Amino acid sequence: MNGKERIAAAMRHEIPDRVPLMCQLALGHYFLNTDLRPHEIWFTSEGFAEALVTLQRRYHFDGILINIPGRDPNWRDAVATIEESAEGEIVRWKNGDRTLIPWDDNAQHYPADPAHARPLFDEFDPDRDFDRIDDWTLYTWGVYHTPTLPGKAPGLLREPPDYFFRTIDLVKVQVGDMVSVHGEVFSPFTHLMELFSYEDALTHLALDPEKTEAILDRLTDASIAWGLAQARHGVDAVLISSAYAGGGFISPRMYRRFVLPYERRVVEAIHAGAPGVPVYTHTCGHLNDRLELLMETGTDGVDTLDPPPIGDTELADAKRRIGDRMFIKGNMNSVYLLQAATVGEVLDHARERLRDGMPGGGYILSTACSVSPRVAPEKLEALYPLVESEGRYDI
Description:
There is one protein chain. The chain is α/β, with parallel strands linked by helices. It has one domain (3-73, 117-390): TIM Barrel (Alpha-Beta Barrel), CATH 3.20.20. 42% of the residues lie in helices and 13% in strands.
């Protein structure tokens, strides 16, 4: 089997030749471990596609997650200067905005006019303000990781601009049918968190739940539009990134009210509009008290399953509870890979995941969350020989 076939089998709960291997990498890991400059990876489709494929080949991953949309090819027209500093690259925009791209971390954007950063929840009108949602720079930045979206129709995203697909196309040309290519869309709840400040959004779950629901109802349309567009464009799976829906942020009761119905709509829309394309969900942190609620969204799989101490989910228990309904990707402690003194310790940690995850299929070996920027590459390089030798099924 090749990587694409192997991951497809795992997502269908079939038995592949061996456990698939696929980790998500932090953007800073690409910055530090490729020859590309940070702004080329962050702001160009060509640069990000090259970084994705370069490290997929280095680590022998069976799949690639494209977690940033393709970029406007004319983005430099809006740039005044790109400078290097001790902190990282600094992109100065002609409108006065500034973007800092650290050498080892996600880019940070600073609007020249704070009034255009984010709206205030109390002042936001769901019946009027979605028509000018792109006026708030940090919403666009937080969701699409770019300060502006040239070529997009005003209001919520309903038809992605053509350049959004550019990275997908470039990656697929390079890997052909050998590697599983996945797209990503932010969940409606993540859109809510990025539209307002995290504190403002979380506070109003309790203070004004009805207005929150009205806003989530509209934001769901944007999640559906980009998720379905990727599925129809040929990705092999769509990941719903729902990072803020874990136990560290909201209770199971709030999850049922503010996350479950809206993510269910996204899953159902992709399943209906692109039959056969799996959908799976990424949620960080504590999930043990809401695994069954997550299953109610209709998602085909779960990504992360952070183990203790960064989460609270034991892989063997999760397999018993949800493994016959959802495939599982993850459960390797992402922080442990950075702290472990030896490659041998990392391999022992991965062996425990193979022991608990691989029986019966439906498991993809992966770090729970993104591989940290400064994880030594040799720790990831060692995972492929492990699955080749100890992750094989007797078929």
